[in-house]
Write a sequence for this structure.
């Protein structure tokens, strides 16, 4: 086994910042020590002087190869995990999908077939439950026991992923018994569908109307409702892709009551807005996702939520569709635009920019992007930190490098960047996954199949 020594860098975790040398052997971190205090030898030495040494990012919300709206997300597990590595993320948790009329196991097997042997970094799965019934509820127990410990339900997308309140309650009750975490897409899909049809009948077909019909109040209402259902069930709940300040208020209220309520937001809600949805010549279609982008004034509440820990995680909800041929399916009808944005490569950099902009601290950056997502979904200790015994998922990060974000230079398999032309400071230089280089001095040296599937424990915030 190759020993690797990282010297001269500032090691940043969720709890500490320290100048330290890091010794890696057998795919794991074996020791940290003050600089020049040990006479360690190694086959590979990485000089991180002037750089940050940070844990690899953990993105617990991605959708590679997801079927949606008559097409598929444009990143495969191979292209998507490679792009993630370029952006300093070394673990993803993607969503396997149960189809209506089929078992959870069938959906999981299908996603294993998509990912097996193709990933550049390590990966796990959550399970989307589209068909809550006696059989699928029983299956949950077996999946938790084998390390698939989180299940996503939707109060949105009637006719596709939608579950009614009774189904959501039953899944939460099951999770309260087996230790699983219920993840909720919280929007009132039934009411939204009414507003969609009314807008289209008025001739309001442009992308900007996507944001207008998916109202913040309907995100807040659904957030409140799923919190109450979880409270009735005695279960925890994790609300995905929170975008509206009214929803943050519901989460804060629940957490003030001491409820096991958790939530994430995504970079698009922190950096983009309805101004993007309103871009002319159908360009706004690039920014159609659900929950939708909100007016800029919502951003302050999201940043505050991240500072106060009412929001604990920043994930990407990476679900890319090319503008040409995919987003264009919705010309003349915004409801037919595939929902989703590319972002798995951008998250760590954008959050570093947020540090420079004064929104969060360096340690909070690592907390919301690495440590907490790993803890939330049963991976911490192995992922999300740099400590003896942890997997050697380590990023050498240059905090002074300047870059311009662009589709011309990104590695995601999509024909536009949601942040085209944005100038930021900070860039990934080298990435190790279990001690093996995936990115070396801004060159890709990884391979499909290096990444392994990760069975997960239950949430480390419970029990």
């Amino acid at each position: 086994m190759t020993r690797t020594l990282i010297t001269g860098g500032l090691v940043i975790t969720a709890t500490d910042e320290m100048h330290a040398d890091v010794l890696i052997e057998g795919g794991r971190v074996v020791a940290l020590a003050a600089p020049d205090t040990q006479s360690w030898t190694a086959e590979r030495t990485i000089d991180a002087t002037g750089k940050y040494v940070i844990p690899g990012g953990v993105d617990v919300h991605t959708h590679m190869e997801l079927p949606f709206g008559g097409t598929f997300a444009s990143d495969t597990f191979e292209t998507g995990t490679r792009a993630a590595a370029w952006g300093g993320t070394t673990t993803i948790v993607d969503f396997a999908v149960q189809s209506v009329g089929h078992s959870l196991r069938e959906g999981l097997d299908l996603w294993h077939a998509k990912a097996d042997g193709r990933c550049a970094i390590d990966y796990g799965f959550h399970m989307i439950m589209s068909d809550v019934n006696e059989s699928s509820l029983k299956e949950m127990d077996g999946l938790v026991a084998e390390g698939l410990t989180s299940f996503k339900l939707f109060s949105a997308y009637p006719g596709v992923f939608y579950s009614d309140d009774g189904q959501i309650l039953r899944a939460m009750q099951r999770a309260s018994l087996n230790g699983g975490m219920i993840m909720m897409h919280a929007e009132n899909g039934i009411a939204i569908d009414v507003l969609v049809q009314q807008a289209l009948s008025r001739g309001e077909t442009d992308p900007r109307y996507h944001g207008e019909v998916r109202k913040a109040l309907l995100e807040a209402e659904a957030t409140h409702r799923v919190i109450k259902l979880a409270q009735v069930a005695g279960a925890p709940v994790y609300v995905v892709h929170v975008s509206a300040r009214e929803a943050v208020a519901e989460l804060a209220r629940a957490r003030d009551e001491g409820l096991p309520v958790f939530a994430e937001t995504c970079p698009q809600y922190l950096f983009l807005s309805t101004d993007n949805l309103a871009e002319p010549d159908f360009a706004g279609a690039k920014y159609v996702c659900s929950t939708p982008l909100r007016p800029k004034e919502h951003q302050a509440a999201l940043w505050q939520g991240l500072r106060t820990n009412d929001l604990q995680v920043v994930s990407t909800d990476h679900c890319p569709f090319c503008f040409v041929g995919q987003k264009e399916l919705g010309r003349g009808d915004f409801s037919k635009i595939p929902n989703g944005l590319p972002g798995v490569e951008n998250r760590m950099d954008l959050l570093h920019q947020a540090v420079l902009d004064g929104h969060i601290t360096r340690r909070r950056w690592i907390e919301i992007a690495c440590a907490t997502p790993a803890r939330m979904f049963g991976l911490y200790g192995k992922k999300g930190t740099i400590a003896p015994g942890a997997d050697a998922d380590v990023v050498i990060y240059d905090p002074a490098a300047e870059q311009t974000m662009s589709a011309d230079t990104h590695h995601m398999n999509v024909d536009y960047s949601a942040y085209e032309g944005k100038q930021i400071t900070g860039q990934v230089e080298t990435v190790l996954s279990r001690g093996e280089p995936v990115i070396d001095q801004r060159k890709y040296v990884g391979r499909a199949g290096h990444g392994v599937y990760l069975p997960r424990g239950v949430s480390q915030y419970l029990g």
Q: What stands out?
A: The mean pLDDT is 98. The radius of gyration is 21 Å. The first strand starts at residue 4 and ends at 7.
